[in-house]
Amino acid sequence: MNRRYRKTIIAGNWKMNKTASETKKFAEELKAILPKAKWCDVVVCVPAVNIPAAMKAFKDVRVSVGAQNVFYEKSGAYTGEVSADMLKDLGVKYVIIGHSERRQYFGETDFTVNKKVLAALEAGLHPIICVGESLEQRELGITMELIALQVKSALAGVPAEKVRKCVIAYEPIWAIGTGKTATAEQAAEVCTFIRTTVRHLYGARIARSVTVQYGGSMKPANAAELLSQPDIDGGLIGGASLKAADFVEIVNAANQE
Ligand SMILES: O=C[C@H](O)COP(=O)(O)O
């Protein structure tokens, strides 16, 4: 981690978990145990329908509320979709884009990810752009090519002054929800490569300012080691973000780095 140049961000991705009342309960639990002085930004990305409840519940907890998806059009006949302006209007700060579950189950592609990133930035949101390889791709030895393609596609047309608003999350698909974490070396290697890719596109100054997270079975037991890697500036946490105590332990691990 390098606090001098960029933000450390610990973000929970609740996926399709917790009702509005469970959100309120979680916020109360979190408030009781979250340290007041934090060196990192803490974000909780909740299901879209629970955003208003989360905004209210996390108001005095100094936790930003994030969304898990956004559509790229501004408005119109797109049944079931939510626009970037709608999220912004609710007070949302971050939005996850291109999570592998969206790519796998909902047909998201590098092309739609890019359109969503542009729409999110235009609305003043911070996109958390997810990239990552499958086990087959890793075994074929094409991880870096794939990551470069995903990063370059996601950032296509993003002007230099807006890139530092983007967060890039490296989430190896084989480590998501499997309990199988990438080793700190594997995670660090790809996170450094992501920064190098941004450097080739935008130069060293901007590359230094972009937050790169790791996600994939991050938990209290492995967070400190992962977060101590120089190019890992935070985590995107699924399962372990659902329990306030585990989530806070990860925030504490980030605070110690
Ligand atoms: O967005 C979060 C990732 O999918 C990681 O999920 P996980 O921590 O449950 O493996």
Automatic annotation (TrEMBL):
PROSITE patterns: TIM_1 (PS00171), TIM_2 (PS51440)
Positions of substrate binding: 13-15, 177, 217, 238-239
UniProt xrefs under InterPro entries: Aldolase_TIM (IPR013785), TIM_sf (IPR035990), TrioseP_Isoase_bac/euk (IPR022896), Triosephosphate_isomerase (IPR000652), Triosephosphate_isomerase_AS (IPR020861)
Pathway of action: Carbohydrate degradation; glycolysis; D-glyceraldehyde 3-phosphate from glycerone phosphate: step 1/1; Carbohydrate biosynthesis; gluconeogenesis
Record's keyword annotation contains Cytoplasm: yes
Residues forming the catalytic site: 99, 171
EC numbers, comma separated: 5.3.1.1
Signal peptide region: none
Localization terms from the record: Cytoplasm
Catalytic activity reported: D-glyceraldehyde 3-phosphate = dihydroxyacetone phosphate
GO molecular function per UniProt: triose-phosphate isomerase activity
Biological processes per GO annotation: gluconeogenesis; glyceraldehyde-3-phosphate biosynthetic process; glycerol catabolic process; glycolytic process
Keywords: Cytoplasm, Gluconeogenesis, Glycolysis, Isomerase
Cellular component GO terms held in the UniProt record: cytosol
Similarity section: Belongs to the triosephosphate isomerase family.
Function: Involved in the gluconeogenesis. Catalyzes stereospecifically the conversion of dihydroxyacetone phosphate (DHAP) to D-glyceraldehyde-3-phosphate (G3P).
NCBIfam families the UniProt entry points to: tim (TIGR00419)
Quaternary structure, from the entry: Homodimer.
Protein name in UniProt: Triosephosphate isomerase
Gene name as annotated: tpiA
